[in-house]
Fold this sequence. Notes:
By secondary structure, the chain is of the alpha+beta class.
Amino acid sequence: MTLGLPGDVSRDSVNRALVHAGHVGAWVYLGMGAVVAISLAIGGSPKGWIAAGLALLMAGTLSLVAVYRSVFWSVLYLVVGGGVTLVLTVFAMQSEHGLATTDNAVIAIPCIALLLVGGAGAGSVAASLWVVAAYAVGQVATYAGSVVSDSEYRVSTAATILALFIVVVRTVDGVTRHSGLRRQAALVRANVAAREATARRDHELEAITRLHDTAMEHLLAIASAGSGPIDDRLRADIRQDLSLLVGRDWVEQHSGGFGDASNAFDIADGTPVLDQAFATAADLGLDVKMTGDLAVLGLLGPHRATELDLAVAECLRNVARHAGVQEAEIILGNGGGEVTVAVMDVGAGFEPERVPAALRGLRVEVVERLERELGSARVWSAIGLGTTIVLTMPEGGA
């Protein structure tokens, strides 16, 4: 069951793919540089072995960036890459190689590898800033190498073109992806509105039917009673049904959960469901709108239902703490042997991959809680565009 959400890659997956592609390109360039340096060493230039070792050192540091993707390793890669670029510039600009300026293919190899670092940031802005920093490091190191080797410095044309290309690509990607997320959020809200309208229509039809049946039943009873006073028992039944229709009790029992937590009851047996989630929302002053049939939670075993309830409560708690809004939406459904609950808000949003490890609420209280019961949690979020968390739990269980 998709609930109007995309089934393809998320924002984080796209960014990781772009970063990984950059890393592969850098490894290819550094490998080419190592092969060239080794060929020079075999041809009688002892410095070629040093150059090859430096290229492999830079490639190894990039591997650590690819594995850990932290600011520390990214900065270390820039430092190591800057040093390698400086030394290779000094080697390349020796008179025996016949290179006129630093704007050449040999020195461009470490400069381009620096640009493809990707850095610790997954967003387009962060990636562009890493490119600018890497470009600056490469050109400063090249200039220092030209001073040491007493050669003419010129900005690397290849590195400059590549830096501009990466910034343009990441900018276009960021703009188009944010536009797509806005459209996705609009589709989700439209889907919620359509489901709610359908549920309200069914509720209104049920109300009309109930009113009609009750009135006809009592009119027939009065007609069958004949002339004279109405029987006290019939009078009491009519009075009770009239008070029920005028009051709100039957509405709360059949409204399908619109409004606040007082509506969250299973119609079949009156047992509260998602009681912890709605109690949490009430305590935090969070207005929760719900679409779907609460009866689908009856497909879960008691323990799984409780775990799902606690996970939804944690999602609502995060909305109240971090989203900057006081409204949330819940959609319930089932399909494919799973019960699905989506918790959505249109608040501040966040970048899931950049949540500090110390903030354990979403990971421990939601993701790991569901995974212990063979369930799952998927998060769609972006800064300024709200958050959608889809919780799935297999039917049955303890």
